[in-house]
Amino acid sequence: MVILIFLNQFIDRVTFFENLEKEMFLPLIFYRLCYPSAMRYARMWYVGNIVRKFFDVDISSQRISEFLEEIGDESIQREFFKEYIREITPSEGVDVSTLKATVEELKKYGVSRILCHP
């Protein structure tokens, strides 16, 4: 639920979403979370779901394809993850207290040798 609240606030705040159809974004996210299947079934899900009462959009295969092409731009993805990481990372830093234990476990199984030496 936190990610959906973040996404909604993020979409409203950032400028690179200005030319995108924002109303299409959240229904497709809800679809993927509730019914993780091919996008071609999204319209059928949408018609029979309460989501259609909150988002009045054309969720046809053609519109989904056009929307995915729009948001597939690399600059949008980079900006999204930069903002998302900033949002989820605590201001005081990242807790690495378990990192040593993880590295020790990897060493025990010889994985560090595989990962560090191609």
UniProtKB/TrEMBL annotation:
At the top level, the lineage of the source is Archaea
Q: What name goes with this protein?
A: Uncharacterized protein
| Organism for this UniProt entry | Candidatus Syntropharchaeum caldarium
